[in-house]
Specification:
The complex is a heterotrimer of chains A (276), B (330) and C (285). Chain A has 276 residues and is an alpha/beta fold. In chain A, 33% of the residues lie in helices and 28% in strands. In chain A, a hairpin with a 5-residue loop joins strand 11 and strand 12. Chain A starts with a strand and ends in a 5-residue tail after the last helix. The relative contact order of chain A is 0.18. Chain B is mainly α and 330 residues long. Chain B folds into two domains: 1-73; 87-329, MetI-like (MetI-like fold, Orthogonal Bundle). Helices cover 77% and strands 1% of the residues of chain B. Chain B is built from twelve helices and two strands, in the order ααββαααααααααα. In chain B, strands 1-2 form a two-stranded antiparallel sheet. Chain B is flat, with a radius of gyration of 29 Å. Chain C is mainly alpha-helical and 285 residues long. Chain C has one domain: MetI-like fold, CATH 1.10.3720. Chain C is flat, with a radius of gyration of 24 Å. Classes of the chains: A alpha/beta (276), B mainly alpha (330), C mainly alpha (285). Chains in contact: A-B, A-C, B-C. The A-C interface holds A 97, 99-100, 130-133 and C 3, 6-7, 10-11.
C-alpha cells in the first residue's frame, strides 16, 4: 500500500495505490455570525495518514478543524456552509446527528483538558460509558489499558489509575486526552495544536505517538510549528488569511513537495520564513 | 533699599504664595497620613462589628443562659410565670421549615441556574435572571402580605385538601387544612431563597472552564450528559456552598414566615399544623415580654446568631473555594 | 442497532432533563410575576392620595393613611444612610486601595458574613446597646440598626466599583508626581463614583423595606415624628400591623402601602442595574 522513501530530511509515505479519501471537504466556509472566518476550502484527506494544516496565527486553521467534527457550531451564532463527507456521508446533512458524528471523529485540544473530577481510568472510558447501558468494571479496565497502551501512557500511569486525571504532568495529560479520544474508536482524530502547551521532550513523545497511531487512524493536525509539520505529516495544507479576513486554503499537497517545491509563491514565502 | 512699589507687591505676593504652598503641603502630608489610617479604621469597624454583636448578645443573655441551662434547647415548656423556658418548638420549626424550603427550592434553583448558564441564549438569559433576582429585592413583609392574602387561601382551598385526598394517609398531610402552618411557611421560604441559590449556582457554573464542556462534547455526548457528568461535578463544592447559603438565608427569615406560620408551639411532622421558628418567636413575642422572658428572647437571638454565623461561614468558604480558578498541574 | 436505540434513549433523556431545567426557570419566573401581579392589582385598587396625606386611623374606622409612617421611613433611611454611607465608603476604599491581601480578605469575609446576619438579630443587638440604656425606643436606635444592615452592602459595592477603575489611571497619576492620597481621592474615587452611588442606592432600597430590626428599636408612633429620641413609625412596620389584622380597611391600606414600597424599591434596583450595565458597555468600549 505504501512505500517508504528516504529523501533528504523527509521520510514520507507515498501511496502507491489510490485509496478513496476518508474525509472530503467541499467549498467549506465557516462563519461567526456574519463574519466569515474560513472561505471556500476544498480538500481530501486520505485514510491512515497524517495531514498537517499550517499557517500564521489567526488564519482560521482551528476554526476549520472544528468544522470537521461539528464543534464549530457549539459557539452561539456560529454556522457552516459547504459540505464535509465522512466515508461518503455528508455530516452536515439535515438528518445528520452531531452527537453520532463526534463519536466517529475525535478531538484533542490545545491545552490538555482531562476531567479533574474523574480518575485516570474514568477519564479514558468517559466517552465509552456514554454509549453502553451498563458498563462492566472489567470491560472498562481492559479498554482503558488498551487505549493507554496505544497512547504510550500505560507504563507511566498503571499504578495511578485511581488518581485524579488532573494529577498528571502536562505531557501525560495530553496523552491521557488522546487515550480518551481513542476509547470511542473514531476513524479520524483531529488535533488542534496538541503540543503547543508542552515542553520539547513531551512534544517529541507525542509526535512519535502520532506516527504509530497513523497506522490505524487518520490524523489531522493543526500546528503553527512548521518543522513539526515537516516531521510528522504525509500531506500538508497551507492556510492564509485573505484580504477580507477570511482564511483560505492556499496550497495542499504531499508534505515533501510543499516544503521543497511549493507551487504558490505565498507558500514559498511562509516556508522560507519571509512571512509569518 | 530702593524697591519700587511693584517689587514690593510681587515680593509680598511671592511670600503669600510661599506660605500657601507650605500650608497646602502640610495639609497634604497630614491627609496622606490620615487617609489610609482613617479608612483602615472604617474597615476595622466593619470587621469588628460581627464580634461586637456576638459579645454584646452574650453578655445581655448571660443571666438567662445561666438560669435556663441546657433545658433551653431540649424542653418545650415556655412559661414566663413559672420562669421555665424551653425553645425546642422554635428550634424544631426552624429546622423543619428550612429543610422543606431547601427541598422545594434547590431543584427549581438548580434547574434555573442550569437554564441560565447552559441553555438560554443571551437575550433570554438577561431578562430571565433579572426577573428571578427581583424576588430578592421585594421586602420580606410584603412577601408576607402576599402570603397571608393570596397563598394561605390558595393552600387552604386547593393544595391542602388535594394533598389530604391523595396522600392523607401519610402523617405529613393528616391535619386540618387551615392554610397556615409549616407547609405554607416552607413554600414562602423556598420562594425567598430561590434567587440566592440560583445566582450563586450560576456563578459557580460559569466558572467551569469551557474547555471541559468541549472535551465532553467532542467525545459525542449530549448536552445533558455534558452538564451532568462534567459541569456539575466540577462545580460540586460551590453548588453545595450555594445551597448552604440559601439555608443561611432561610434560617434568618422573619417577617414573611411570621405572617403565615401560625405561631403555635407544636412539635409535629403534620405539615398543616401551625408552628414557630426561632426568628418568628423572637419577633412576635417581643411585645408581651418583660424582664426574664425578654432576656430569654435575647438568648434565643444569640442562638440564632451563632447558627446563622456557622452556616454562612461554611457556605462562603465552599463558594469561595469553588470559584477560585482550579489550578491544574501542567 | 443497539447503538441506535441507545442513542435515541440518550436524546430522550437529554430532552427531558433540559426541559425540567427550563421548567425550573419558568416556575421561578412565574412566581415573581404572580406575586408582583397581585401587589400591583391590589395596590393600585386601593391607592389614593389619602395614603400620603392622612394619618392612621384606628381599627374599625374608615379612611386614614400612612403619612406619618411614610415620613418615618424617609427619616430612618436618611439617618441610617448618614451613619452607614461614610463608614461604608471609606471601608470600601481601604479594601481596594490600602491594606494587605491577607487583612483585606479577612475584612471582606467578615463583611459578607455580616450581610448574612438575620436582621432580627441586628435589632436585638441595637436594643441591647441603645434602647435598654436609654430606656426608650427611638429613631436613633432604629437608624443604627438599619445602618448596620446597610454597612456591608455599601462597603462591598464601593470596593468593587473602585476595583473596576483601571490601575493604569492610578499609575499615570502617580507618575505625574501626585501624592498617593490625592491619586485615590481625585482619580480613583471619581472614577468609581457611579458604582458607589449605585451601591448606596441598593443599600437604601434594602433598608427601606426592613421590618424586623425596627420591631425592637422603633416600636412605632401614632403621632408621627417626635424627635430622634422618641419612638417612630415606618411603612414596613405599619404594613405588617395592618396585614395581620382582620380589619378590611387596614388590609386595603396594607396593599396600597406595599405597592408604594415595592414600586420604590424596584425602581431603585432597576435604575441601579440599568446604570451598571451601561457602565459595563462603556468600559468595554
Amino acid at each position: 500500500m505504501y512505500t517508504l522513501v528516504n529523501n533528504n530530511d523527509f521520510t514520507t509515505k507515498i501511496s502507491t495505490e489510490t485509496e478513496a479519501p476518508i474525509l472530503k471537504v467541499e467549498e467549506l466556509s465557516a462563519y461567526y455570525g456574519t463574519f466569515r472566518a474560513v472561505k471556500n476550502v476544498t480538500m481530501d484527506v486520505y485514510p491512515r495518514s497524517i495531514t498537517a494544516i499550517i499557517g500564521p496565527s489567526g488564519c482560521g486553521k482551528s476554526t476549520m478543524l472544528r468544522c470537521f467534527n461539528r464543534m464549530h457550531e457549539v459557539v452561539h451564532g456560529a454556522h457552516v456552509d459547504g459540505k464535509v463527507w465522512l466515508d461518503g456521508k455528508d455530516i452536515y446533512a439535515p438528518s445528520a446527528d452531531p452527537v453520532k458524528i463526534r463519536c466517529n471523529i475525535g478531538m484533542v485540544f490545545q491545552k490538555p483538558n482531562p476531567f479533574p473530577t474523574m480518575s485516570v481510568l474514568d477519564n479514558v472510558v468517559a466517552g465509552r460509558r456514554l454509549t453502553s447501558i451498563w458498563s462492566k468494571r472489567s470491560e472498562m479496565e481492559e479498554l482503558a489499558e488498551k487505549c493507554l497502551r496505544q497512547a504510550a501512557l500505560w507504563d507511566e500511569v498503571k499504578d495511578k489509575l485511581k488518581q485524579s486525571g488532573a494529577s498528571l504532568s502536562g505531557g501525560q495529560q495530553q496523552r491521557l486526552c488522546i487515550a480518551r479520544a481513542l476509547a470511542v474508536q473514531p476513524e479520524v482524530i483531529l488535533m488542534d495544536e496538541p503540543c503547543s502547551a508542552l515542553d520539547p521532550i513531551a512534544t517529541l513523545k507525542i509526535e512519535d505517538l502520532m506516527r504509530s497511531l497513523a497506522e490505524e487512524y487518520t490524523i489531522i493536525i493543526v500546528t503553527h510549528n512548521m518543522q513539526q509539520a515537516g516531521r510528522v505529516s504525509d500531506r500538508t495544507a497551507y492556510m492564509l488569511m485573505s484580504d477580507d479576513r477570511a482564511g483560505e486554503l492556499v496550497e495542499y499537497g504531499e508534505t515533501e513537495q510543499i516544503f521543497t517545491n511549493p507551487k504558490d509563491k505565498r507558500t514559498e514565502d511562509y516556508i522560507t520564513g519571509r512571512f509569518g | 533699599m530702593n524697591m519700587s512699589d511693584d517689587d514690593l507687591s510681587t515680593s509680598k505676593d511671592s511670600n503669600k504664595h510661599k506660605v500657601k504652598k507650605i500650608n497646602s503641603h502640610l495639609i497634604s502630608r497630614f491627609i496622606a497620613g490620615l487617609l489610609p489610617n482613617f479608612t483602615r479604621f472604617c474597615a476595622f469597624v466593619v470587621a469588628i462589628l460581627l464580634l461586637f454583636i456576638l459579645i454584646v448578645l452574650f453578655i445581655e443573655a448571660w443571666d438567662a443562659i445561666r438560669i435556663n441551662g441546657w433545658s433551653f434547647i431540649t424542653s418545650s415548656t415556655w412559661d414566663p410565670v413559672k420562669g421555665i423556658y424551653g425553645a425546642l418548638p422554635a428550634i424544631f420549626g426552624t429546622l423543619l421549615t428550612s429543610f422543606l424550603a431547601l427541598l422545594i427550592a434547590v431543584p427549581a434553583s438548580f434547574g434555573a441556574a442550569i437554564f441560565l448558564s447552559e441553555i438560554a441564549p443571551s437575550k433570554v438569559k438577561n431578562i430571565a435572571s433579572f426577573i428571578i433576582e427581583m424576588i430578592a429585592a421585594i421586602p420580606s413583609v410584603i412577601i408576607g402580605l402576599w402570603g397571608i392574602r393570596v397563598l394561605v387561601p390558595f393552600m387552604a382551598d386547593f393544595i391542602q385538601p388535594w394533598l389530604s385526598k391523595i396522600l392523607g394517609f401519610l402523617p405529613f398531610f393528616s391535619g386540618q387544612p387551615t392554610g397556615y402552618g409549616f407547609l405554607t411557611s416552607s413554600v414562602i421560604l423556598a420562594i425567598m431563597i430561590i434567587p440566592i441559590i440560583t445566582s450563586m449556582s450560576r456563578e459557580v457554573l460559569r466558572s467551569v472552564p469551557n474547555s471541559q464542556r468541549e472535551a465532553m462534547l467532542a467525545l459525542g455526548a449530549t448536552k445533558w450528559e455534558t452538564i451532568s457528568r462534567v459541569v456539575l461535578p466540577y462545580g460540586n463544592s460551590g453548588l453545595v456552598g450555594a445551597i448552604i447559603l440559601g439555608l443561611g438565608r432561610a434560617l434568618g427569615e422573619t417577617m414573611a414566615v411570621a405572617m403565615v406560620i401560625g405561631n403555635s408551639p407544636n412539635i409535629t411532622f403534620d405539615l398543616f399544623s401551625g408552628g414557630m421558628t426561632i426568628a418568628t418567636k423572637i419577633a412576635s413575642e417581643f411585645g408581651e415580654s418583660g424582664g426574664q422572658s425578654r432576656e430569654t428572647l435575647i438568648e434565643l437571638a444569640l442562638v440564632l446568631f451563632v447558627i446563622a454565623l456557622l452556616v454562612n461561614v461554611i457556605a462562603r468558604l465552599l463558594v469561595w473555594r469553588a470559584t477560585k480558578v482550579k489550578t491544574e498541574k501542567g | 442497532m443497539m447503538f441506535r436505540f441507545k442513542l435515541f434513549l440518550r436524546k430522550l433523556v437529554n430532552l427531558f432533563m433540559l426541559s425540567l431545567c427550563v421548567l425550573g426557570a419558568l416556575i421561578a419566573i412565574s412566581v415573581v410575576c404572580i406575586m408582583l401581579g397581585y401587589i400591583v392589582v391590589n395596590g393600585v385598587a386601593f391607592l389614593n392620595l389619602d395614603l400620603i396625606t392622612n394619618t392612621s386611623v384606628s381599627a374599625g374606622e374608615q379612611g386614614g393613611g400612612m403619612r406619618n409612617e411614610i415620613i418615618g421611613t424617609i427619616i430612618l433611611v436618611m439617618l441610617g444612610s448618614i451613619l452607614a454611607v461614610p463608614i461604608g465608603i471609606l471601608a470600601g476604599v481601604f479594601l481596594s486601595e490600602f491594606g494587605s491581601p491577607r487583612i483585606n480578605s479577612a475584612v471582606r469575609f467578615t463583611a459578607d458574613i455580616l450581610a448574612g446576619v438575620p436582621s432580627i438579630v441586628v435589632g436585638v443587638f441595637v436594643y441591647s446597646i441603645i434602647v435598654r440604656p436609654m430606656h426608650s425606643f427611638s429613631a436613633l436606635a432604629a437608624s443604627a440598626a438599619l445602618a448596620i444592615v446597610m454597612l456591608p452592602v455599601v462597603a462591598r459595592t464601593t470596593e468593587e466599583s473602585m476595583r473596576l477603575v483601571p490601575d493604569s489611571l492610578r499609575e499615570a497619576a502617580l507618575a505625574l508626581g501626585i501624592t498617593r492620597w490625592r491619586a485615590v481621592v481625585s482619580v480613583a474615587i471619581p472614577g468609581a463614583l457611579t458604582g458607589i452611588a449605585a451601591g448606596v442606592m441598593l443599600g437604601v432600597a434594602r433598608i427601606a423595606g426592613e421590618t424586623a430590626p425596627l420591631l425592637y428599636t422603633a416600636l412605632g408612633n401614632n403621632y408621627g415624628f417626635e424627635g430622634l429620641t422618641k419612638p417612630i413609625g415606618a411603612m414596613p412596620m405599619q404594613i405588617y400591623r395592618y396585614a395581620i389584622s382582620p380589619d378590611a380597611n387596614w388590609q386595603n391600606q396594607a396593599w396600597a402601602g406595599a405597592f408604594m414600597l415595592v414600586m420604590m424599591v424596584l425602581f431603585i434596583s432597576l435604575g441601579v442595574r440599568w446604570i451598571s450595565s451601561k457602565r459595563k458597555t462603556e468600559t468595554n468600549n
